[in-house]
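Q: Convert this sequence to structure tokens.
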Amino acid sequence: MTSLAEARDILRRVGQQPDHEIDVAETALALGVLDRPGTDLDAYRRHLDAIARDMQERAPGVDDLRERIALLRAVIIERHGYSGDHDTYDDLQNANMLRVIDRRRGLPVALGILFLHAARAATWEITGLNFPGHFLLRMDHEGERFILDPFNEGQVRTVMELRDLLKATAGSAAELEPAHYQPVTNRDVLLRLQNNIKLRHLSSHEVPKALKVLETMRLFAPDEPSLWRETGLLEAHAGNLTDAIKALEIFLALADTDHHRHQAASLIQQLKNRLN
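A:
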């Protein structure tokens, strides 16, 4: 059984790791424990091991990129039965890796983590992308490159499909930009997973729950300035002025532009004036 304290310790250790050493799927299991303390992770780890083993046994000799994608789909979608949850998309279970494995359904980023885990077990080149509103993956091999949609059975997406997807999530005026094709780090993928939970709490006006998620995110990404800024703003909104000041002071130390530092310093002073 993995306790809440043990899960938090795992996340703290991840927070000190270089990004390339982060095991995204294993970390996602620890994040799942925060909502389901006392869960025995052994069965979930065996499942991840089974996915990796399936890939390692079948990957040798698969050198064509389309064949690699077909094998990924065969393992994740066909053999292990995963699919995007189109019916209850906003269900919080879809962002908890434990429940995603139990139900074989999840959000794009949760399923994307399984694709990342499988492809990397075969030592294939794969990365998440900075695409807004819908998590996507990019695979490269010998000069070829394809973008995969893990939520929709790992389908390869064309430029026109990506444009339509962007407009569906970001509005009709949105257009594809080079930034949307930029790779993201392992830590970014985990932040995106948790961000789904945080946003659902905020949409339900559950600020204390959103603050708990932000606390979790800071465990494995302690040097991410935006987390401290958002924490400070939410604590201030909740009337927790001392906690807000502490968070914004850390943001001030981490901020990388004069504009952000000036904004933070000004807000800190306003909050201190309210305390006096």
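The chain has a mean pLDDT of 97.
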